[in-house]
Write a structure and sequence with these properties.
Blueprint lengths: L9 E10 L6 H19 L3 E9 L3 H10 L4 H18 L6 E4 L3 H16 L3 E11 L4 E3 L17 E10 L5 H10 L4 E2 L4 H11 L3 E2 L1 E3 L17 E3 L1 H6 L1 H4 L7 H7 L4 E5 L3 H14 L8 E4 L2 E3 L14 H8 L1 H11 L6 E3 L1 H31 L12 H12 L3 H22 L1 H7 L1 H22 L4 H10 L3 H4 L4 H4 L22
Parallel strand pairs: 1-2, 1-11, 2-3, 7-12, 11-12, 13-14
Antiparallel strand pairs: 4-5, 4-6, 6-8, 9-10
Helix pairs in contact: 5-6, 11-12, 12-13, 12-15, 13-17, 14-15, 15-17, 16-17, 17-18
């Protein structure tokens, strides 16, 4: 007899770790929300998901922000702001499994171990460097990167720095990187970003310094280097390592083996070079496998303007969600901006989509049908009637797997609109007078369709999905079934008592 073990797949997904020089704004919640949607989708499919986010705390920017805020004790400042990030994600319903702070011991242990490995590989050497450093980017800039002498992202003139530093021999991995990218077309997504990275690696990439002198923060250079006492590690070199330190690199080999390599690093397009060139080279140097995919999403503006503190438009995600609800914001971010492209967050569009799509097309649909079930069937689900949603599921899965989230929503909305059309053409209020059998069929098909819709919506709008299941009277049992069972037509049992609760999306 042959035994077959069916192991559940793992899915390790990460967001960038955010600087704690300020609290989160809606741009940061964009990245985090997308990661949350994908984490929920993979959990829903029964996979063992690890969803990681966290804070990047060893940056000079944070120290400056602490000083500005009047807090002299930097640790106190970091604890306070890191807690705000954690609380924001909790209140925003983000389902991260772990939260890493780069000032934690587990991270520092991993960084030391990693440095030692790369040191022994002779990939670190001493050299000197002179260049333009942008504190906002925490990176050296080439003259050709500047626009009128300013960093195009931070609109500030970088500082001329000349230092003796330790360098990472990234150029040793140039060919290997190009070969890897060539052989793994899925690695850099969307496709349109691949050329940008390949050009950088091929034509511009130079060994980069991984230490800073006299910095008032940062992880001390590991002892093995016997390097200057006043030097610390360059913040990006330490920050990228969060992805392995959080899963026990250098400490918990079993956990590390279980989750590494990451299945997806989700990042903004501003930091693609770090994730698709430096990071993979660092991993090659340490003899570790490379992540399976890096997806860079676009940036968005607010009412056409770049998000910035000085413009006063750095919207707090919790503030907007007070008016519209978290799910409406999640819906809007995904529906309005095609993943990978830039877009605009406008309150006018948000209002429009809220009223037309959420309140009218979805919210009204559900409450009308629940009301009809109460009126015509005493609130009890009528006898099962046949229909199929097989192809819709197939397309939905393909979209979700391939990160076409706005297209998945588009497909879901086709079902919503079709359900509305069924009501318009079947006119249940007239059927009630002349054809009870047909009426029962129509109502069953609509209710069962809602059960499916809730599953499809769950990763994107978890609160709404729960409310729909509640309305259908199946809130508890629905969580116990597998994804495969959920997708079968006819899950809703005859006689199940429905309940028309409050409106899903109350009129504003
Ligand atoms: N600390 C580094 C990342 C280290 S990862 C090893 C960093 N932090 S950050 O706080 O500046 O956050 C950058 C990320 O926030 C971007 O890559 C992007 O994911 C997100 N966004 C910040 N502003 C944004 C918009 N306006 N629009 C979309 N995403 C935005 O860089």
């Amino acid at each position: 007899m042959q035994y077959k073990f069916i192991m559940s797949k793992k899915f390790y997904i990460t967001t960038p770790i955010y600087y704690v020089n300020d609290k989160p704004h809606i741009g940061h919640s964009y990245t985090t929300t997308i990661a949350d949607i994908l984490a929920r989708y993979h959990r829903m499919k029964g996979e063992k998901v690890l969803f990681l986010t966290g804070t990047d705390e060893n940056s000079q920017k944070n120290v400056e922000a602490a000083e500005k805020s009047g807090e002299k004790n930097i640790k106190k400042y970091l604890d306070k702001i890191a807690a705000i990030w954690q609380e924001t994600w909790d209140s925003f319903g983000i389902s991260n499994d772990d939260f890493i702070r780069t000032t934690e011991k587990r991270h520092i242990v991993a960084v030391n171990k990693f440095f030692e490995t790369v040191w022994k590989k002779k990939d670190i050497y001493e050299g000197s460097y002179e260049g333009w450093y942008c504190a906002g980017c925490e990176a050296f800039k080439k003259e050709s990167d500047l626009v009128n002498g300013l960093c195009p992202d931070h609109k500030k003139a970088p500082e001329k720095i000349k230092e003796n530093n330790l360098f990472f021999r990234v150029t040793k991995y140039r060919d290997a990187l190009l070969e890897f990218i060539g052989k793994n077309p899925e690695f850099i997504q969307p496709k349109s970003r691949r050329n940008e990275v390949v050009n950088f690696i091929r034509d511009y990439m130079e060994d980069f310094s991984i230490t800073r002198e006299n910095a008032s923060c940062g992880i001390p250079v590991p002892k093995i280097a016997k390097y200057k006492k006043n030097a610390s590690l360059y913040v990006w070199f330490d920050a990228l390592l969060n992805y392995v330190s959080a899963i026990g690199y250098g400490k918990n080999p079993a956990k590390f083996k279980k989750f590494w390599p990451a299945d997806l690093h989700l990042v903004g397009k501003d930091i693609i070079k770090f994730h698709c060139a430096y990071w993979p080279a660092m991993l090659m140097s340490a003899g570790l496998p490379l992540p399976k995919k890096v997806f860079a999403h676009g940036f968005f503006t607010i009412n056409g303007e770049k998000i910035s503190k000085s413009l006063g438009n750095a919207i707090d995600p919790l503030e907007v969600s007070k008016k519209f609800g978290i799910d409406a914001i999640r819906y809007f971010l995904i529906r309005e901006i095609r993943l990978g492209e830039d877009g605009d967050f406008s309150f006018e569009r948000l209002n429009e989509r809220y009223n037309n799509e959420l309140a009218n097309e979805l919210g009204n649909l559900i409450s009308r049908v629940l009301a009809m079930t109460e009126k015509y069937f005493d609130g009890k689900t009528p006898k099962k009637a046949p229909a199929r949603l097989f192809y819709a599921w197939k397309e939905y899965d393909e979209d979700m797997e391939n990160l076409r989230l706005n297209e998945a929503l588009e497909k879901i909305w086709q079902i919503v609109r079709e359900a509305n059309r069924i009501i318009d053409s079947e006119r249940p209020w007239e059927l009630a007078k002349i054809n009870q059998k047909r009426l029962a069929e129509v109502i069953y098909v609509l209710l069962e369709t809602f059960r499916h819709l809730a599953w499809m919506l769950y990763p994107i709008m978890p609160g709404t999905a729960e409310k729909i299941w509640e309305g259908l009277g199946i809130a508890k049992s629905e969580k116990k079934i597998t994804y495969k069972q959920a997708r079968k037509w006819g899950g809703l049992k005859q006689g199940t008592k429905v309940k028309k609760g409050e409106a899903l999306f109350p009129r504003l």
